[in-house]
Task: structure prediction
Amino acid sequence: MNRALRTAALVAASAALPLTAQAQSDAATGGVRFLSGFEARSLSFDAGLGLKSAAEYAIPFSAIWTVSPRFALDFGVRYASATRSPETSGESNSTVSGFGDTQVRAVYQIVPDALVLTLGANLPTGKTKLTDDELIAAGVVASELIPFPVPSFGSGANATTGIAAAVPFAGWALGVGGSYRLSGSYTPVASRDSAYKPGSELRLRIGADRVIGQGRVSLGFTYSSFAEDEFGGSRIFQPGKRYISQASWSFPIGNLGVALYAWDLYRSAGTVALGGAQTEKQNVLTAGAQLSVRLGRNLLRPQIEFRQHAAGESSLEKAGQLFSLSARYQMALSGSLTLSPALRYDVGNVVNASGDAIGFTGWGLSLGLRAAL
Result:
């Protein structure tokens, strides 16, 4: 079985912490990688939503240390600022700014490219105790449809442990994995001195990878279930289960690399503890394609993507859609330094409470910086 396929299946099955597993597979022993940059996103909405525009910028910083061929560590944190502009003139903008939580992760390959143990922690460095004005801005970027750079500013401490294994099966590299996340409490609202405690999460994942012709096919499925959320020491909400299906196919056409992908996230209805009311079921379906064009030492990656959001209590109804065009240019400035500027254009709509589709347009830009020591 091809080593790259085993590694890909193992990464796909590492439900808890895939970033470290990826870093370990292609980084020199003892090496440290630093990743930083800048990302901004802005959208303007047509009348009828109560929202004129929403914007966010973020500055990420992360580091990956490959301690040994079997052991690696990484951490990451972001500073972000989000602003919501109301549709009604005379109302002031709402803004929230601050650091997000810090994620620390580690992976140990018990059996190289076959069995991986992962451990991780979410450190509560993020902004909590939000004012009413900050909550409005934070709610806009926590969108199911529109992927803002930082959808959540702070969620308290949590710890995750997981294990994943990869084995050959009928010509495929098959990966299976599971993880368990235990979350601590935090105070989300400044005006209420009550702690919110998200329920623990159990996540199971299966991934498969194989070569077909000159290309490669990857498949994945993830299942997540949650314990009840608590607020002020009382159980308030039972979140719905999540089901994520993923598929991709990459292949060459002449000197071009082509990647087709799709994923679907379905979230079943949750239950409010007081009264037993059901929340909406939700589904997000995404499909896209990316080209890789080699230009000397550099790489140009244009991409097209379509995303559709559906929600409803009894049945799923259209809730919005998003069409995006983007391009990223990866420039190798030296053997250890890579710069990646990117641009994107968005157009779509969001269905309001009256059932009307409210259009929007948007743009995004980012600059990624990657350095290796």
Remarks:
- The chain is about 10% helix and 60% strand.
- The two ends are 32 Å apart (CA to CA).
